[in-house]
Amino acid sequence: QVQLVESGGGVVQTGDSLRLSCAASGRTFSSFALGWFRQPPGKEREFVAAISRTSSTYYADSVKGRFTISRDNAKKTVYLQMNSLKPEDTAGYYCAAQVPDYSGGYAYSSTYDYWGQGTQVTVSS
């Protein structure tokens, strides 16, 4: 069983930055692929970013160049650094894990085995 706990959300203004963290339990964290998804109000959950067990990274076009995903295997934590935030980034942000890394399908929520409870990010204009 793997537990994921997100933190770091909040209310910020347009152009500000935030860093989300997701702490994981589990002895084999280094074998996980990890993803961030978000769900804007009234919309479906969408892919944001993912990082494989080898630290290859993948991004949605809407966040490319503004967001950076990274991992610290020693701390069993994955991060999402969000810069130049826009009102359309407002959403609940969710961390997810593939256990172990399936080597693909990172943009699809159905390929993830475990999910966190989410953290809210609100960007005001």
Features:
125 residues, mainly beta, seven-stranded mixed β-sheet, four-stranded antiparallel β-sheet, 11 strands
Architecture overview:
- There is one protein chain.
- This protein has 125 residues and is an all-beta fold.
- 0% of the residues lie in helices and 47% in strands.
- The protein is built from no helices and 11 strands.
- Strands 2, 4, 5, 6, 9, 10 and 11 form a 7-stranded mixed beta sheet that branches.
- Strand 7 and strand 8 (77-82) form a beta hairpin.
- The radius of gyration is 13 Å and the shape is globular.
- The N and C termini lie far apart (40 Å).
- The mean pLDDT is 97.
Q: Which structural class matches the secondary elements? A: mainly beta
Low-pLDDT regions = none
What is the average of the pLDDT values?
97
Shape descriptor reads globular
Counting DSSP E segments of at least 2 residues, the number of strands comes to 11
Q: What Rg is obtained from the alpha carbons, in whole angstroms?
A: 13 Å
Give the end-to-end Cα distance, rounded to a whole number of Å: 40 Å
Q: Which bin fits the share of residues in helices?
A: under 10%
Give me a quick take on this structure.
The chain has 125 residues and is mostly beta strands. Helices cover 0% and strands 47% of the residues. The protein starts with a strand and ends with a strand.
